[in-house]
Amino acid sequence: MTLNFDAKKLAGDLYDGGFRPMFIGGQWVAAQSGEVSEAYNPATGEVLATVPLAGAADVDAAVVAARKAFEGPWSKFTPYERQVLLLKIADLFEANWERLSVSDTLNMGMPISRTIANKRRVIGMLRFYAGMATSLHGEVIDNSFPGEIVSFTRREPIGVVGAIIPWNAPTAASIWKIAPALATGCTVILKPSEDAPLTPLLIAKLMQEAGVPDGVVNIVTGKGSVAGARLAEHPDVNKIVFTGSTATGQAIARAAVGNLKRVSLELGGKSPLIICRDADIERAVPIAAMAVFAHSGQICIAGSRLFVAREIHDEFVGKVADYARSLRIGHGIEEDTDIGPLISARQAKVVEGFISSGQSEGANLMAGGNRLSGPLYDGGNFITPTVFGGVKDDMRIAREEIFGPVISAMPFDTIDEVVERANATPYGLAAGIFTQNLGLAHKLVRRIKAGSVWVNMYHAIDPAVPFGGMKMSGYGREGGTEHLHEYLETKAVWIQTD
Q: Where, by residue number, is the active site (predicted)?
């Protein structure tokens, strides 16, 4: 794609290594301890800014601010007024989309061509939830009591929401948590990942500019083990919503038991992508490759287990390997970059460990598998798109979520076999199917245990369509009307009228 603005100049204007305070109760504040952490550009290792390293006391202050707003001015906003506010936020996001996109690219590495392309999804979310703000209602229910007794339900905001997001999509993840909270009349404390905290702080400025009342949206930067843990256990938080690893999700669920707060978890995955023998190979190859290589494999829905019908396996996997070798690897701010860096040296080391494991267990390395070095790459965390053939179901690379640009390709012989193997995982987040047989597609859709199933496509996410996982991939849904219900309590009302 061709950008219509100077991304490099905008990048230079956004961050200069200086301090960026967090946002609590409408105020820009430092951590009470005075501690800070550094936010890096994963492509260069450059320090973009320093941010507060929040402790439990800072989280407590944010909860107090959110509770005060929930029971105060925000409670008086009508559904129409909440809708107007969300539409104003959407307009401000549209006007500032280039800044948001460049910020995401700088702090978490996704190529600018992809962060810019997220515009429709993110602004679409804001406008979808704005529309939903005036559509929330209870219902009148006929009951079985004699006499004149009316029964009906009310939908009421659940209260203070704690939202913990990952680093791989700061803008989209922030809005997926904030927008439904605003639509339903809740208040929110957002805790971004310590690896990518900068765009959420930029979002807070736009919220303030839009006129969001003080305390309705709060951004607390800090470590998950400290700030995130306090938010999850806090007795005055009514709901916790989390996107991230399954292990952390389990810890959050345990922490939430104290006050039995409502919990929504969107966790890890090891998603199968099934290529049937009648698949359109030329169409399927780039989609199968980018089902993993998009954002260097750092996506929870990555279709990293590639099951290919034996009749076309060698041809198909060979083409995927060729495609992997054709991708341009570089700094995300360059508009011709296909694959950017991994988020950190720590994550790069994890992925290198998986690649070594695949080789030692006997998988056939067909493309990639190395960390790049040299003047363009030495400051960053770049691993080439990697394709393994000859993978067995019990290998680590076929069982564990890698969160890196690694495809594990395996042949299959029958539909019953591939369904059994695809479902033989503790995860159930997403799946993909390529076939030109509509009947077969429907049969597979029914049998695959995953929260989202794409047929002859991958990665599609829309604000109106629910998204979430089964099994160890979490519970609850984001998107669609089901998402709003996660932020509402249902109250039953009885009135005797005679």
A: 266
Report the alpha-carbon distance of residue 488 to residue 449 in Å, rounded.
28
Domain spanning 272-463 has what CATH number? 3.40.309.10
So where are the chain's domains? 7-267+473-493, 272-463
Residue 433 CA, chain-centre distance (Å), reads 22
282 annotated active-site: no
Question: How much is the pTM?
Answer: 0.96
- pLDDT tens readout for residues 213-239: 999 999 999 999 999 999 999 999 999
Give dist(CA 369, CA 351) in Å, integer: 9
SS3 of residue 240 by DSSP:
strand
Name the DSSP letter for residue 428. E
**Euclidean distance between CA atoms 117 and 160, whole angstroms:** 32
Among 233, 266, 401, 486, the one annotated catalytic: 266
Q: Where are the alpha helices (DSSP H) in 361-436?
A: 396-399, 415-423
Can you give the C-alpha Rg of the chain in angstroms?
A: 23
Phi then psi for residue 213, to 5 deg, are -60, 150
Domain 7-267+473-493 has CATH 3.40.605.10: yes
Residue type, 137: H
Which one, of 169, 411, 400, lies nearest residue 304 by Cα?
400
> What is the length of the chain?
498
Output the pLDDT for position 1.
62
Q: What is the pLDDT of residues 388-434, one digit of tens each?
A: 999 999 999 999 999 999 999 999 999 999 999 999 999 999 999 99
Q: Following CA atoms 247, 252, 257, 258 in sequence, which dihedral angle do they give, to the nearest 10 degrees?
A: 140
First-to-last alpha carbon distance for the chain, in angstroms, is 69
What gap in Å lies between CA 241 and CA 243, rounded to an integer?
7
